[in-house]
């Protein structure tokens, strides 16, 4: 089986500081793959590079058979790779519905767009109830849902989620995590960056532990959930 996403020896630097120091991993179609690790490990930098917002200094990224390394960000979206960024980045003055419509800006199928907005409301009913409200009035968790809904509006083959549980209550976090599993069952492949290692490993098919720009450990979510060093370092066990 060829991978949907293949990352080979990826290197990314901010000036002289190398934030990602040659990482390699793959994402197979239909999988949930997670990158976990402490602050500053390079997870966000990796996602921003995959979506074309940062240019790597080395390595190669292949998505759906196409080399992405020199492809601009908007083209990457049109190839089927969407990014729900850390800190959400919704448009606070626009309504929820307008935010969702913006996620479909490259599409030209109005009926399909309307159907997908409805799908976002089915996934997150609160968004449907508030559809005419300015997005800035939503709670943090609701904004996170909107960011995910908006990323889905490009009908991605691969959805990249950066810290979707950040700042959420346990109930909201559960909701987001169960939605990720639901999206997988509907055929979306997911690359998930999370600080909440327990939650991420519980639902991941494959997981990679990042430390200071490198991948220290890889395995199935279940294997890493039971790995002693992971339990000590990332799951807070003695
Ligand atoms: P977090 O979970 O805290 O977001 P992360 O694993 O996503 O961490 P990154 O945000 O990718 O880590 O950061 C990796 C390294 O790159 C860190 O040392 C960080 O300080 C540095 N870095 C990130 N953004 C910039 C920037 N714009 N300019 C310079 N250095 C940066």
Automatic annotation (TrEMBL):
Signal peptide range: none
Gene3D superfamilies registered for this protein in UniProt: P-loop containing nucleotide triphosphate hydrolases
Occurrences of domain ABC transporter (ranges): 5-237
InterPro entries: AAA+_ATPase, ABC_branched_ATPase_LivF/BraG, ABC_transporter-like_ATP-bd, ABC_transporter-like_CS, BCAA_Transport_ATP-bd_LivF, P-loop_NTPase
Domain of life: Bacteria
GO molecular function: ATP binding; ATP hydrolysis activity; branched-chain amino acid transmembrane transporter activity
SMART domains: AAA
SUPFAM superfamilies cross-referenced by the UniProt entry: P-loop containing nucleoside triphosphate hydrolases
Keywords, ordered alphabetically: Amino-acid transport, ATP-binding, Nucleotide-binding, Transport
One of the GO BP terms on file: L-amino acid transport
Family: Belongs to the ABC transporter superfamily.
PANTHER family: BRANCHED-CHAIN AMINO ACID TRANSPORT SYSTEM,ATP-BINDING PROTEIN, HIGH-AFFINITY BRANCHED-CHAIN AMINO ACID TRANSPORT ATP-BINDING PROTEIN LIVF
Protein name, UniProt field: Amino acid/amide ABC transporter ATP-binding protein 2, HAAT family
Organism: Actinacidiphila guanduensis
């Amino acid at each position: 089986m060829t991978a949907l996403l293949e990352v080979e020896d990826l290197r990314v630097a901010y000036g002289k500081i190398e934030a990602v120091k040659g990482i390699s991993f793959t994402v197979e179609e239909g999988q949930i793959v997670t990158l976990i690790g402490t602050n500053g490990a390079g997870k966000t930098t990796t996602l921003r590079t995959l979506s074309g917002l940062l240019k790597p200094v080395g390595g190669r990224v292949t998505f759906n058979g196409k080399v992405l390394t020199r492809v601009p960000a908007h083209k990457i979206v049109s190839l089927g790779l969407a990014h729900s960024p850390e800190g959400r980045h919704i448009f606070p003055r626009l309504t929820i519905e307008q935010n969702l419509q913006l996620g479909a800006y490259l599409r030209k199928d109005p009926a399909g767009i309307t159907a997908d907005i409805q799908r976002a409301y089915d996934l997150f009913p609160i968004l449907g109830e508030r559809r005419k409200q300015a997005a800035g009035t939503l709670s943090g968790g609701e904004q996170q849902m909107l960011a995910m809904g908006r990323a889905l509006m490009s009908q991605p083959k691969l959805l990249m989620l950066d810290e979707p549980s950040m700042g959420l209550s346990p109930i909201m976090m559960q909701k987001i995590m169960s939605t990720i599993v639901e999206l997988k069952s509907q055929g979306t492949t997911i690359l998930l960056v999370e600080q909440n290692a327990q939650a991420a490993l519980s639902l991941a098919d494959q997981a990679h532990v990042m430390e200071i720009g490198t991948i220290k450990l890889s395995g199935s979510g279940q294997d890493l959930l039971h790995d002693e060093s992971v339990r000590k370092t990332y799951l807070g066990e003695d």
